[in-house]
Specification:
The chain is built from 24 helices and 16 strands. By secondary structure, the chain is an alpha/beta fold.
Amino acid sequence: MYTLHGTGIGRGIAMGHALIWDQEQSTIPMHHLDQSQVDSEIGRFSHAISLVRSELRRVQDTLPESAPPETAAFIDVHLMMLDDPVISQQPVESIAQQRLNAEWALKNHGDTLVAFFEGIADPYLRTKKEDVAQVVDRVMDVLLQSGSTAIESTRTVDTPLDGKIIVARDVSPADAITLRHRHMVAFITSLGGPISHTAILARSLGIPAVVGMHDVLSTIQDGDPLIVDAANGTVIVAPDTSTIEFFERKHTEQRDRESRLTKVLGKAVVTQDNEPVSILANIELPDDVTALQGSGAAGVGLYRTEFLFMNRNESPSEEEQYSAYCQVLKSVSGPVTIRTLDLGADKQIAGARVESNVQVTPALGLRAIRLCLSEPALFKPQLRAIFRAALFGEARVMIPMLSSLQELEQSLAIIREVRAELKRDGIAFNEDVPIGGMIEVPAAAIAADLFARKLDFLSIGTNDLIQYTLAIDRVDDSVNYLYDPLHPSVLRLIHSVLKAGREARIPVAMCGEMAGDTHFTRLLLGLGLREFSMEPSQLLEVRQQILSSRITDVEPIANAILACKDTDTLYQQLEQLNAMSVS
């Protein structure tokens, strides 16, 4: 018996036998075509795109009624990427103009799109390179099979997978849905991270998974008995009898707990000592609001607007943005916090000024509010669209990556200009949209009291705040083990932002991944957080944790954790905090 470690997805436990899902592709061929072969090669490529599109739609159409509402949205993202010109059109141009074979043309342009996402500073958006790679792989499978699709031969075979734990290089959202339909009990991958679409979908579907386990395909053999503990990110290979009995008991306790979760939906979100708490959802596409139906979310705490701007030849018009924001605001009962554009300037945004020298570190370059201030032609139409759409719902504007008061003053000046222009032009809009700031740069967290005096609300973006504070890239597998939400510096920054909000009497939310992790719910409550925003699939568990907590009990321990002098004591106190029972 031995144990392997990776990144756990969800809190589930699974026991079964390994099924090695070998997805290694053949070497991608490269050759030039005779002119007489070009038309048939274009036809072969177009046929592959068509087959993959049909298969993705088939997966979407056969989703069970019990599937979480956000499930179809993940397939929509892959369909959207399949229709991206870089994947669907530019390879055709390479076949026609350079007479390249379809596989090599697809590889070249797929690599270009992956590089595009790798250049994005935002960790969540950067993980979309995995979705691109998965879509490209599906098309490549078809091309390499020479007419017999890998989709048909390996992905949609109806052989039951009861008791099987898939061990693979990667698993796409569509594959996860199909494999779940075939009763796979868990999956383990060598690639992937905690905020990829596949990871989010696994949580939503309740599939235990461990990802980012680099050598797993050379370590685990087909048929090995396994235990997957997603909560701890561990895989136990060839467990002994006592270990099996322990996890069987743990699995039963977990199933009993999950059956109680749905009972919390009808309850007000208040602690045991009647302290009200707001739980909201993060979304990135207008269609994502369907995932909020029946989730108990009080609104949207983070609406990422970047997908309106990406992978296109021109920036979205004011009217296009207005339409998207109206769709969300009309569909959501409660506040909708719209984050203004949070992308970089090099090749991520059409219409932005491009400098000759390439950014070495995109996360620290001309991005987010820095880009918007340098390119008012991008910023002002977005603000106009938000203020106009705010007539149809409870909109809030959130400015990302603030690091200086000068940036804030410039942002507020442009906002005043936009309001004056709308009024001058006689265009109907909401003049009272709250303006907030995303606190994700350590400089802003340290000076949060100064920002709080000039804003209507603050929101802590823990994903970037942690990686900037600890000087690590959480998407980089070689250093992401250093990503630690419980680092004393991180906890002190979070506490100082919450304190600044209280003193300025403005609300402070948290919209990073930490807000949706129940390991930290009671700690954050004890530190003073009262507004949590997370992926829709995390809402029920966080809600349950809030309902089972008492502020007067968690505050003293949270303060003790904040004052901790050593790591071991800190983790012991956190364990004590989470183990507390409330009568």
